[in-house]
Design brief:
Length: about 325
C-alpha cells in the first residue's frame, strides 16, 4: 500500500525552481522560490569559541542578524532553526543557524477518477416505469419519451433510440417510444356519404360503401357504420358505411279477373245413359233434325240405355249426322 507524504514544502512538480506546499492530501496554491534555501543540510554563521574569550563582532555580523535575515528569506516550514549558546555556559550573543531542507520523494497526486462506460439494457417490451428503473440502475437517464398509437398495452416500450448492448458514458440519455391507445372512431351516421368518407379517410381508415334501398328519407345519407362509433380500431382498418338509396314504392298489383264458372250439373239432374249430361226433359231430338223436341242436343255419347232413341244407327254416338 502506498503511503501519502506528510504535509510540508516540496519541489513544485509543475514549476522548476520553486517550493510548493503539500497539505497531506493534495497540492495547494502556496509557492515560494528556492533561492533562499541551501542544500540538504547547511550550517551558516556558527560561531566557534576562541582562546582568550569571546570576540567582539559588529552587530550586523552577530547570529541574531543572520537569523533575522534567514527567516525573512526562507519559506515557512522549510527550515528548522536551532539557537546554540556557548557550551561552556558563557553566551557571547552568537547564534548557530541550521537550515535543514526537507526533501522527501515528490508525491504523485492521485489522478482524477475515470468514468466506467455502461451498456444500454434491452427495454423494448417493458412498461415505461420498468424501463426507466432499468436505465437508472444502469447509470443512464431517460431522454425524450414519444407516444405512438398501438395495439400493445398503454405504456409498453415500442422502440429505443440506442440499441441494447451499446456502450455509453454514465448519465447518457436514451429516448423511448411508448404505446398509446388508438383514437376513438368518429361517428358519421346521418352525414352525407362524401362528408363521412372524407372524415374517416382523414383519420387513417379505409372506407367501404354499401347501399340500402329505402322508401323514404334522403338518398346518400349514412344509415349505419361498422365498426361502431367510439370503438378503437387500428389505424388503417376498414370501416363499412351503409348509405341510403330512396326508391319509389311499387304500385300494388292489379286484381286478377275472375273466371265465370259453369254451373255444376249434379248427377241427379242428368238423364242416365248420356255424356255429356242431358237434363231430364219430356223428349230430345237431334239439333237441326226434323224432330219437334221440346229439347235438342248435339252429338252425345250413349253410355247406357238410350231413352230418347237418339242413337238410331247403334254406333254409340247419338246425333252425329248418321
Amino acid at each position: 500500500m502506498t503511503s501519502t507524504p506528510r504535509a510540508s514544502w516540496y519541489p513544485d512538480p509543475e514549476v522548476p525552481g520553486q517550493w510548493r506546499y503539500w497539505d497531506g492530501t493534495r497540492w495547494t496554491e502556496h509557492r515560494a522560490p528556492m533561492a533562499a534555501a541551501g542544500p540538504a543540510t547547511a550550517t551558516t554563521g556558527a560561531a566557534s569559541a576562541r582562546p582568550g574569550g569571546p570576540v567582539s563582532r559588529p552587530w550586523w555580523r552577530t547570529g541574531w542578524a543572520v537569523l533575522a535575515t534567514a527567516l525573512l528569506c526562507l519559506p515557512a516550514g522549510a527550515v528548522a532553526v536551532t539557537l546554540a549558546g556557548d557550551p561552556g555556559g558563557s553566551d557571547d550573543g552568537t547564534v548557530a543557524l541550521t537550515t535543514e531542507t526537507q526533501r522527501p520523494p515528490t508525491p504523485s497526486p492521485s489522478p482524477e477518477p475515470t468514468e466506467t462506460p455502461v451498456q444500454v439494457p434491452a427495454l423494448v417490451g417493458l412498461g415505461q416505469d420498468d424501463a426507466e428503473h432499468a436505465l437508472e440502475a444502469a447509470g443512464l437517464e431517460v431522454g425524450e419519451v414519444e407516444q405512438q398509437p398501438s395495439a400493445e398495452a398503454v405504456g409498453t416500450v415500442l422502440e429505443q433510440n440506442v440499441s441494447d448492448g451499446t456502450v455509453l458514458s454514465p448519465g447518457g440519455l436514451v429516448a423511448l417510444v411508448v404505446a398509446s391507445p388508438y383514437p376513438k372512431l368518429p361517428t358519421v351516421v346521418g352525414r352525407s356519404k362524401a362528408a363521412a368518407v372524407e372524415t374517416l379517410e382523414a383519420a387513417g381508415y379505409v372506407v367501404r360503401v354499401t347501399t340500402k334501398k329505402v322508401s323514404s328519407g334522403t338518398s346518400g345519407r349514412v344509415l349505419g357504420q361498422s365498426p361502431k362509433a367510439a370503438t378503437r380500431p387500428e389505424t388503417g382498418a376498414r370501416v363499412t358505411l351503409v348509405v341510403a338509396k330512396v326508391v319509389a314504392p311499387k304500385p300494388p298489383p292489379a286484381p286478377k279477373a275472375t273466371k265465370t264458372k259453369k254451373p255444376t250439373i249434379l248427377a241427379a239432374s242428368c238423364t242416365p245413359g248420356y255424356d255429356p249430361c242431358l237434363p231430364p226433359a219430356s223428349d230430345y231430338d237431334c239439333a237441326g233434325g226434323s224432330g219437334n223436341g221440346p229439347a235438342y242436343t248435339g252429338p252425345v255419347r250413349v253410355t247406357g240405355s238410350d231413352p230418347y232413341d237418339l242413337d238410331r244407327d247403334g254406333d254409340g254416338v247419338a246425333c252425329d249426322g248418321d
